[in-house]
Design a protein that fits this description.
Number of helices: 11
Helix content: 25-40%
Distance between the termini: 66 Å
Oligomer: single chain
Order of helices and strands: EEEEHEHHEEHEHHHHHEEEEHH
Shape: extended
Strand content: 15-25%
Radius of gyration: 33 Å
Largest sheet: 5 strands, antiparallel
Amino acid sequence: MGCTSCTTGANGQPKGCRNNGTCGSDGCNKLTVFDWLSNMSLPGDQEPFIGVEIRFKNGRKHFYKNSEGLTLSIGDVVATEAAPGHDIGIVTLTGELVRVQMKKKKQTTDTEALPKIYRKATQKDIDIWQKCRSKELTVQKESREIAIALGLQMKISDVEYQGDGSKAIFYYTAEERVDFRQLIKDMARAFSTRIEMKQVGFRQEAARLGGVGSCGRELCCSTWLTDFRSVNTSAARYQQLSLNPQKLAGQCGKLKCCLNYELDTYLEALDEFPRTDIKLNTTKGTASCQKIDIFKRLMWFAYDNDGMNWHELRVDKVNEIVALNKKGKSVASIEEYIEDVVVPDSELFNNVVGQDSLTRFDQPKTRRNKRRKKKRSRSRNRNSQRNG
């Protein structure tokens, strides 16, 4: 976190701004957009676009209209229209780029249908907002206890209070349909506020909670990914990955979204490969494909009567044999198309990280040993002189 509110406590431990990525100084925001039109002036006959993009907790964004003509900039805390009451959010984008974002998200650019921005938040509004935000974890824990007492098969993953404290939104995940009518009554009685339940998917839950993936970086869904496309196991098959659900699944329990990132590149490379179930007809026998290497553009074939011996062929050679088979011709053997590639010794090992020899610790350090022996002998001589 980069804002000034993220200070450290008396014992040196980080306090954190406790805003979960929504600090007012715009230093630790999630899903931010760079306004590359901020330093450009509009034509003289064009009115500025009154639409404003405002972010709430955990990267939730909505569009509002600045009908009052307020002077807003990125990072301003504003009070917006809500039902009921008002909500508190942070301005993330203004100007013409808001129109582009609305078109990107397939929303109409008619600002008349948008809710209004009431005013810039006063200190009283911010104090109430922060007070409500500070009790969300306690409310979440108590709501889970109420759901468990009622025996509901659901998980309340997050709680979001409205800026004025008049409503609380409970986000939950469930495998099946849940009857939470009694739950709403009990929570309204316990928390003395208006209750709204919103069901989210497991991917959306991981995006709201955040975390660190197996790659060592923050989750894509909680930092920059906004659309969740379906991921199939066929994506892993095309990329020659082992179908291990423990490695392919993310923190949401579903297949990782990053399996789709390089899928198009793999599919383009596989267009030059023949199908893996193809048979090569030779006079020596029929050969079947055993393995392929997309990066090296290699394929391994083995005769049906000799499956233990694999023969390495380049893709263009395999396509040549397939073309002859389609014409009704058969080659003598696949060994004729094998090319011996000699790899020089210099390419067997490359020091890519600047490390020394692997046996550097095996060599005795004679200089250090001599120094240690001298120190020991000196200390012995001193002790003998003292005793004498």
